[in-house]
Amino acid sequence: MEQLLNSVPSWTNVAIFFGLGAALLLMVLAFVTYGILAERKVMGFMQGRYGPNQVGGRWGLLQTVADVLKLLLKEDTIPKAADRPLFILAPILAFAPAFMVLAVLPFTDAFQFADIGVGLLYYIAVSGLTTIGVVTGGWASNNKYALIGGMRAAAQMISYEIPLVMSVLGVVLLTGSLNLNDIVEAQKNVWYIFTQPVAFIVFLIAAVSELNRTPFDLPEAESELVAGFHVEYSGFRWAFFMLAEYVYLFAMAALTTILFLGGWHPVMFLGFIPGPVWFALKFSVVVFVLIWFRATFPRLRADQLMELGWKVLFPVALANIFVTALVKELFF
């Protein structure tokens, strides 16, 4: 991609970037639309009930399209006592970082928007900004239940951000780089899921919590009478919070594929299959596992959530860093 951009005038580069950005946005929106449908179908199968099968055309393919239209047409209300500017801004603050992190993810060896030397650090830093949008939405609603939901979300995200970051430090130690392309290339022979299995487990659990998905979906609290930080939102503003969750699902599944599953590298003797196909297959497996978690596990209590993060994942991730550094020092 860099060679292509260097060979054309600067104004053409801008047009290419806008075109690629629009294409990526459409790809992500298509994933969100039919990822939700796939989640309904898979969960319906696992829980012994029907997913969307009576409406939405063949196989329910238009069901989520109808949901989007419903949200677009739904009345948009803003509480009188709400902080209006912040109330309007909060969904954008929650969604924008989810799309920004996609810029550094290498989907193949030739398709990446920005190959920066600290791509992993950029992902971690930008993804944390979503917490600001969640807390802002709870605060601006001028509703004590929304505020408590926003504070609960902030506590959860901060608590699990630490073991999430610490789990990838073992990968960084083995690779010697924060560049995501370097991390993929270092797995050309052996994927890090085999050399860093403990880090992979900690990362996956912390990632589920960062995504606010079952069994860690306490900030939304959908089984309660109020819906947490977005209780006062309706219509497409509410949809922006949900859109951010599923865009992060896309991004986190891609990051898991890059960090632990070798990215686009094939399995041994199956090298004749193109790299993008391998990436898509691994990515799909990760998404399926995340849906599987949601269909299987019950929600944790708030105290159990914090105990798991601070008393289990944190020390395990710390021990993994120590062991990885020791093994590398002694044998490499």
UniProtKB/TrEMBL annotation:
<keyword id="KW-0830">Ubiquinone</keyword>
<dbReference type="Pfam" id="PF00146">
    <property type="entry name" value="NADHdh"/>
</dbReference>
<keyword id="KW-0520">NAD</keyword>
<dbReference type="GO" id="GO:0003954">
    <property type="term" value="F:NADH dehydrogenase activity"/>
</dbReference>
<feature type="transmembrane region" description="Helical">
    <location>
        <begin position="120"/>
        <end position="140"/>
    </location>
</feature>
<keyword id="KW-0812">Transmembrane</keyword>
<dbReference type="InterPro" id="IPR001694">
    <property type="entry name" value="NADH_UbQ_OxRdtase_su1/FPO"/>
</dbReference>
<keyword id="KW-0472">Membrane</keyword>
<dbReference type="InterPro" id="IPR018086">
    <property type="entry name" value="NADH_UbQ_OxRdtase_su1_CS"/>
</dbReference>
<dbReference type="GO" id="GO:0005886">
    <property type="term" value="C:plasma membrane"/>
</dbReference>
<feature type="transmembrane region" description="Helical">
    <location>
        <begin position="14"/>
        <end position="37"/>
    </location>
</feature>
<dbReference type="GO" id="GO:0048038">
    <property type="term" value="F:quinone binding"/>
</dbReference>
<feature type="transmembrane region" description="Helical">
    <location>
        <begin position="86"/>
        <end position="108"/>
    </location>
</feature>
<feature type="transmembrane region" description="Helical">
    <location>
        <begin position="308"/>
        <end position="327"/>
    </location>
</feature>
<protein>
    <recommendedName>
        <fullName>NADH-quinone oxidoreductase subunit H</fullName>
        <ecNumber>7.1.1.-</ecNumber>
    </recommendedName>
</protein>
<feature type="transmembrane region" description="Helical">
    <location>
        <begin position="160"/>
        <end position="178"/>
    </location>
</feature>
<dbReference type="GO" id="GO:0009060">
    <property type="term" value="P:aerobic respiration"/>
</dbReference>
<feature type="transmembrane region" description="Helical">
    <location>
        <begin position="277"/>
        <end position="296"/>
    </location>
</feature>
<dbReference type="GO" id="GO:0016655">
    <property type="term" value="F:oxidoreductase activity, acting on NAD(P)H, quinone or similar compound as acceptor"/>
</dbReference>
<keyword id="KW-0874">Quinone</keyword>
<keyword id="KW-1278">Translocase</keyword>
<comment type="subunit">
    <text>NDH-1 is composed of 14 different subunits. Subunits NuoA, H, J, K, L, M, N constitute the membrane sector of the complex.</text>
</comment>
<feature type="transmembrane region" description="Helical">
    <location>
        <begin position="190"/>
        <end position="208"/>
    </location>
</feature>
<feature type="transmembrane region" description="Helical">
    <location>
        <begin position="246"/>
        <end position="265"/>
    </location>
</feature>
<comment type="similarity">
    <text>Belongs to the complex I subunit 1 family.</text>
</comment>
<keyword id="KW-1003">Cell membrane</keyword>
<keyword id="KW-1133">Transmembrane helix</keyword>
<comment type="function">
    <text>NDH-1 shuttles electrons from NADH, via FMN and iron-sulfur (Fe-S) centers, to quinones in the respiratory chain. The immediate electron acceptor for the enzyme in this species is believed to be ubiquinone. Couples the redox reaction to proton translocation (for every two electrons transferred, four hydrogen ions are translocated across the cytoplasmic membrane), and thus conserves the redox energy in a proton gradient. This subunit may bind ubiquinone.</text>
</comment>
